[in-house]
Design a protein that fits this description.
187 residues, Killer Toxin P4, Chain A
Length: 187
């Protein structure tokens, strides 16, 4: 029986390459959850359509600049402005955010092709546009909720744990530096 003797640096290089391969993940498509298309339509080849196309192009192109949130208006000096935004989950990579916004633009133009108001949700991002400004306002509609359908056997214990966790998270968030994604308290 012969023994195989490898140079330690080759062995280290081989193991490093294997560990890097195990860390790489294959990109998966963004996960579509839902969309709402309002029942207000516009005509094809209208000013609104042109403004909407411009807005969606702007949203898609700005998702490439490592932005997690972006809002803009197209045609604000016309009688048919379009207001829109995208928001990516804070823990997604810039590349996944970009892919999600691109998928959202593509899907919303298919599913809500003539609607003046639409929103589309993905697990990783959401995209919204409207013929009225909704920036810096709280809108309760359109909305989409994900519900937990599992049973909680100890409701009181669950509620106490939930309250404790929410209070601790709120305290950490209030002490975090402005713009921080981390919930570590200020030092």
């Amino acid at each position: 029986m012969t023994s195989l003797s490898l140079n330690p640096s080759i062995t280290l290089l081989f193991l490093s390459m294997l560990s890097l391969l195990s860390l790489t993940t294959h990109a998966t498509a963004p996960i579509h959850l839902n969309e709402v298309c309002a029942n207000t339509t516009f005509s094809s080849n209208s000013t609104y359509q042109s403004n909407l196309n411009s807005l969606l192009s702007s949203l898609s192109s700005n998702a490439t600049h490592s932005l997690e949130f972006y809002n803009t208006t197209s045609g604000e000096n016309t009688s048919n402005p379009v207001y829109g935004l995208f928001l990516c989950r804070g823990d997604v990579t810039p590349q996944l955010c970009q892919e999600c916004v691109a998928a959202a633009v593509k899907e919303i133009t298919k599913k809500c092709s003539r609607e003046k108001v639409a929103v589309i949700w993905y697990d990783e991002c959401m995209l919204r546009y409207s013929n009225r400004s909704f920036f810096s306002t709280v809108d309760e509609k359109p909305k989409f909720a994900l519900l937990n359908t599992q049973n909680i056997t100890e409701q009181d214990r669950f509620n106490k744990l939930l309250a404790k966790s929410m209070n601790e998270t709120a305290a950490q968030a209030s002490n975090a530096p402005i713009g921080s994604k981390s919930l570590e308290p200020k030092k």
